Amino acid sequence: MSDAASAKPTISNLQREIVSVVLDMIIPADPLRNKPSATDVSVLEYIIKRHPNTLARTAEELTELQNQAQSERQSDFLALSRESQDALVAAMRSKNPRFLMTLAVQATEAYYLDERVMSSIGMPSRPPYPEGYTVEPRVNEFLLEPVRARGSIWRRTEIEQKTDV
Hints:
This protein is an all-alpha fold. It is built from nine helices and no strands. The protein has one domain (8-127).
């Protein structure tokens, strides 16, 4: 494998700054409800660790966002007002509904793994099972009766035949 193929995907410092703004657009902080923003829960670090294969596409979309800001607004994306940033992202999403979709899905995934977020919505910060929840059996025995009555439908190996008594 070549060095280029095995290299970890990265995003530039400018893209990191842009993605921080975009992540906080997707999931802003809510101090009244004690909910952190997406950047407060280190969503980007989560994505880098868990979904490195999507970073190249996200970096392309962030570059596209920066280029659009420069061509339409004659300004860097980061220099725009929050309202202008929101409008630019909305315009790009109206042209391409999949624009930044992967980032939004991953942000949501990472966000609800954070203990502070789970506590702020009144949920325990642990997996829901096995503590506290009953999991219903997923097998309907009635449906399995004809399968069991039919018996084996495969050919036994020589070893299995020798071990049968």
